[in-house]
Amino acid sequence: MNKIVPAIAAAAVLGAGAWYFSTTPGGAPGATSFQVEAQESSEADLSLVQEMSMGNPDADVTVIEYASFTCPHCRTFHDNVFDDLKENYIDSGKINFIYREVYFDRYGLWAGMVARCAGPDRYFGIADLIYERQSEWAQGEPAQIAQNLRQIGKTAGLGDDQLDACLNDAAKAQALVATYEQNAAADNIRATPSFVIDGENYSNMNYADFSAILDEKLAD
């Protein structure tokens, strides 16, 4: 489980006052840089960030997952638990499921921006690819990681121009970090993966424990 250290999480994402994604005109990273100066969270336009959800928005039970694309424990949850959860509770309309990104570093932020690049309808499909290939893309120097994430985007059908627009969106990057900070503080999130089930906080768990909690809440 990756622990979130309060007050310095955003600094880890943005670096010493700036966040950047480097690309060349042809899509290869490293030749030029684009910087997003760190701002106060209150200056970010949170309306730029769409909540990513699936299942039944009118369900009696809502599950919120807080996870990072660079967190190995989050990948394990998605490998071993999420598919059964999706089949038995999300696709069946029993619950409303919300996924909220946590950013420990700029790489998790880049991954989130790639996942969001094709819009909400394709978000979870691209997120699956990012988790599936985590051990491959999250290795090496920043330029290589950037290229790896771009390749995942291309595998999902995104073009270079589309990826450039998404990854160089300074306002969106700032809004994503500010939204993460606000949500994590409101729900008292200290580690990933963490879950808020109908307002109650839970740590990482296996499918048997997760389903038992959901069944109990659905029976109320």
Structural key phrases:
alpha+beta; about 45% helix; Glutaredoxin; 9 strands; 9 helices; two-stranded antiparallel ribbon; Thioredoxin_domain; signal; about 20% strand; five-stranded mixed beta sheet; globular; about 220 residues
Structure description:
With 220 residues, the protein is an alpha+beta fold. The chain has a single domain (9-41, 53-219), classed as Glutaredoxin (3-Layer(aba) Sandwich). Helix content is 47%, strand content 19%. The chain contains nine helices and nine strands. The strands form three sheets. The protein has a five-stranded mixed beta sheet with strand order 4-6-5-8-9, with helices on both faces. Helix 3 (106-115) packs across helix 4 (120-132). The chain is globular and about 50 Å long. The chain starts with a strand and ends with a helix. 37% of the residues are buried.
